[in-house]
Amino acid sequence: MAGIELRSSAFNDHSFVPRRYAREGENTSPPLTWSGVPDEAAELVLLCEDPDAPSGTFVHWIVVGIDPRSGGVEAGQCPPGGTELTNGFGEPGWGGPHPPAGDEAHRYFFRLYALSEPCALPDAPGADQVHQAVEKHQIGSGNIVGLYHR
Question: How far is CA 43 from CA 24, 67, 90, in A?
Fold first, then answer.
Protein backbone atom coordinates (compact mmCIF):
# COMPACT_ATOMS: atom_id res chain seq x y z
CA MET A 1 0.00 0.00 0.00
CA ALA A 2 1.27 3.45 -0.91
CA GLY A 3 2.35 5.90 1.75
CA ILE A 4 0.91 9.38 1.39
CA GLU A 5 2.86 12.21 2.97
CA LEU A 6 0.46 14.46 4.89
CA ARG A 7 1.72 17.75 6.34
CA SER A 8 0.51 21.04 7.79
CA SER A 9 2.23 24.41 7.74
CA ALA A 10 0.39 25.18 11.00
CA PHE A 11 1.92 22.39 13.13
CA ASN A 12 4.39 19.52 12.93
CA ASP A 13 3.61 15.87 13.55
CA HIS A 14 3.02 15.31 17.29
CA SER A 15 3.26 19.04 18.09
CA PHE A 16 0.58 21.40 19.38
CA VAL A 17 -2.15 22.71 17.10
CA PRO A 18 -2.38 26.52 17.40
CA ARG A 19 -5.42 27.87 19.28
CA ARG A 20 -6.68 29.52 16.06
CA TYR A 21 -7.76 26.09 14.80
CA ALA A 22 -9.44 25.06 18.08
CA ARG A 23 -13.13 25.40 18.82
CA GLU A 24 -12.36 28.03 21.46
CA GLY A 25 -10.25 29.98 18.96
CA GLU A 26 -11.34 30.83 15.41
CA ASN A 27 -12.44 27.22 14.82
CA THR A 28 -10.78 27.31 11.39
CA SER A 29 -9.66 24.06 9.77
CA PRO A 30 -5.86 23.90 9.47
CA PRO A 31 -4.02 23.99 6.14
CA LEU A 32 -2.91 20.58 4.89
CA THR A 33 -0.76 19.43 1.97
CA TRP A 34 -0.28 15.93 0.64
CA SER A 35 1.83 14.07 -1.88
CA GLY A 36 2.36 10.48 -2.96
CA VAL A 37 -1.28 9.76 -3.83
CA PRO A 38 -1.44 6.66 -6.06
CA ASP A 39 -2.30 7.43 -9.70
CA GLU A 40 -5.17 4.94 -9.65
CA ALA A 41 -6.94 6.68 -6.74
CA ALA A 42 -10.59 7.49 -7.50
CA GLU A 43 -11.11 9.69 -4.43
CA LEU A 44 -9.53 10.81 -1.19
CA VAL A 45 -11.21 10.75 2.21
CA LEU A 46 -10.03 12.94 5.08
CA LEU A 47 -10.80 12.11 8.71
CA CYS A 48 -9.77 13.98 11.85
CA GLU A 49 -10.48 12.09 15.05
CA ASP A 50 -9.66 12.36 18.77
CA PRO A 51 -9.23 8.88 20.28
CA ASP A 52 -8.63 10.42 23.72
CA ALA A 53 -12.13 11.86 24.12
CA PRO A 54 -13.79 10.69 27.36
CA SER A 55 -16.86 9.29 25.57
CA GLY A 56 -14.82 7.40 22.95
CA THR A 57 -13.28 8.46 19.65
CA PHE A 58 -14.69 11.84 18.62
CA VAL A 59 -14.95 12.92 14.97
CA HIS A 60 -13.80 16.48 14.22
CA TRP A 61 -13.81 16.45 10.40
CA ILE A 62 -14.85 14.06 7.64
CA VAL A 63 -14.50 15.00 3.99
CA VAL A 64 -15.35 12.54 1.20
CA GLY A 65 -14.99 12.81 -2.58
CA ILE A 66 -11.75 14.83 -2.50
CA ASP A 67 -10.08 15.16 -5.89
CA PRO A 68 -7.12 12.74 -5.84
CA ARG A 69 -5.16 15.10 -8.15
CA SER A 70 -5.34 17.89 -5.56
CA GLY A 71 -2.33 18.54 -3.38
CA GLY A 72 -3.89 20.06 -0.32
CA VAL A 73 -6.30 22.51 1.23
CA GLU A 74 -5.91 26.04 2.57
CA ALA A 75 -6.93 26.94 6.13
CA GLY A 76 -10.68 27.32 6.53
CA GLN A 77 -11.51 25.69 3.18
CA CYS A 78 -13.05 22.42 2.06
CA PRO A 79 -10.60 20.23 0.11
CA PRO A 80 -11.06 20.41 -3.69
CA GLY A 81 -14.08 18.39 -4.85
CA GLY A 82 -14.83 17.32 -1.30
CA THR A 83 -18.10 17.09 0.61
CA GLU A 84 -17.91 17.79 4.34
CA LEU A 85 -20.02 15.47 6.47
CA THR A 86 -21.44 16.13 9.94
CA ASN A 87 -18.87 16.06 12.75
CA GLY A 88 -19.27 14.93 16.35
CA PHE A 89 -20.59 18.37 17.36
CA GLY A 90 -23.54 17.78 15.01
CA GLU A 91 -22.35 20.40 12.52
CA PRO A 92 -21.17 20.00 8.94
CA GLY A 93 -17.47 20.58 8.31
CA TRP A 94 -14.65 21.25 10.72
CA GLY A 95 -15.14 21.22 14.48
CA GLY A 96 -11.88 22.20 16.17
CA PRO A 97 -10.22 20.58 19.15
CA HIS A 98 -12.07 21.10 22.43
CA PRO A 99 -10.92 18.60 25.05
CA PRO A 100 -12.20 18.89 28.61
CA ALA A 101 -10.38 21.63 30.53
CA GLY A 102 -7.61 20.15 32.66
CA ASP A 103 -7.20 16.95 30.60
CA GLU A 104 -3.76 15.95 29.43
CA ALA A 105 -3.18 16.95 25.80
CA HIS A 106 -5.45 15.03 23.43
CA ARG A 107 -4.18 13.62 20.13
CA TYR A 108 -5.89 14.67 16.91
CA PHE A 109 -5.25 12.21 14.10
CA PHE A 110 -5.61 13.69 10.62
CA ARG A 111 -5.88 10.70 8.27
CA LEU A 112 -5.98 10.88 4.49
CA TYR A 113 -7.06 7.79 2.59
CA ALA A 114 -6.69 7.13 -1.14
CA LEU A 115 -9.46 4.83 -2.39
CA SER A 116 -9.74 2.81 -5.58
CA GLU A 117 -13.45 3.65 -5.74
CA PRO A 118 -15.76 6.02 -3.88
CA CYS A 119 -17.05 4.92 -0.50
CA ALA A 120 -20.56 5.35 0.81
CA LEU A 121 -21.04 6.87 4.26
CA PRO A 122 -24.06 8.22 6.14
CA ASP A 123 -24.12 11.98 6.73
CA ALA A 124 -22.82 11.76 10.31
CA PRO A 125 -20.67 8.63 10.55
CA GLY A 126 -18.67 7.65 13.58
CA ALA A 127 -14.93 7.08 13.27
CA ASP A 128 -15.41 3.28 13.21
CA GLN A 129 -17.85 3.58 10.29
CA VAL A 130 -15.28 5.62 8.34
CA HIS A 131 -12.51 3.11 9.05
CA GLN A 132 -14.72 0.21 7.93
CA ALA A 133 -15.86 2.00 4.76
CA VAL A 134 -12.36 2.94 3.60
CA GLU A 135 -10.79 -0.40 4.54
CA LYS A 136 -12.29 -2.21 1.54
CA HIS A 137 -10.92 0.13 -1.12
CA GLN A 138 -7.87 1.72 0.50
CA ILE A 139 -4.79 1.85 -1.74
CA GLY A 140 -2.81 4.45 0.21
CA SER A 141 -2.89 6.50 3.37
CA GLY A 142 -1.04 9.07 5.41
CA ASN A 143 -1.49 10.79 8.73
CA ILE A 144 -0.29 13.61 10.92
CA VAL A 145 -1.04 14.00 14.62
CA GLY A 146 -1.68 17.30 16.35
CA LEU A 147 -1.91 17.84 20.09
CA TYR A 148 -4.19 20.18 22.02
CA HIS A 149 -5.17 20.88 25.64
CA ARG A 150 -7.09 23.57 27.50
Answer: 32, 6, 24
